[in-house]
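Exercise 4. Each item below gives a protein and its sequence. For each, produce the structure-token representation.

Item: GNAT family N-acetyltransferase (Agathobaculum hominis).
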Amino acid sequence: MIRFAEQRDLPAIYSLWETCFPDEGGFNGYFFSHLYEPQHTLLLMQENTLCAMLQMLPYTLSVNGELREITYIYGVCTHPSHRRRGYAAELLERSFALDKEKNRAASILIPAEKWLFEFYRPFGYAETFYLSRRSLTRTAGEFELPRRLSDAHIPQINALYEASCPPLHITRSREEWSRQIAMFDALGVGVYGWFDGAALTAYAFCWEDTAQEAIGLTANRERGLLNALSRETLTVTAPGSETALGVAKWHDRSCADNGYINLMLN
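Answer:
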């Protein structure tokens, strides 16, 4: 039986999550305390035993200025003792049917490993979302130190993000930006920004060794970020076209444009 989760399912869901996604840096506890919602959790049950599950998280894509509701598939997992029975495939197919009932335009996901791009291809997913990734090394020279950002800066963060993204990209509400800032403050090393007077000109959402999303960086700002974080090296990701990050399965008309998604619990 496939159904959405109820509150009574939480212990089994948490146990399966911990089994499939061993905790790193406190993320699992944070996810279930702050982000988990049972109505977005699709379960496959066999005789009251949870065998497999996935998250159907609602998001909005901007497609050349048109806003389209989509589902972000997250946390696909099957208990080790129930694998190789097609349960993940059953859950995905049910999620597609639910998407169509709700007139959602697409199902998207971010494969956790490179080989999973091929695993998801038979379901109709194709590489759609890209980014650039590079490594910074601290060097001598002038630097521009950043300031910590907070919810008060969300309008400027969003404006800079929207101006920097390709025509196909995930949109973020004020609530979503606030969730991201809170998570990076709690589990990472924070969110940093650079200003020209009162105007935000660059930002970086930082884990300890990665700026997961950085927009507007210059050489001086990169050196300033490394100094602020007391790091010699740092991996930086930003909107780009070099590295495939995510895939999409379009339910209505497909979109061939290369797009950008990030900061989606990936």
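Check: The chain has a mean pLDDT of 96.
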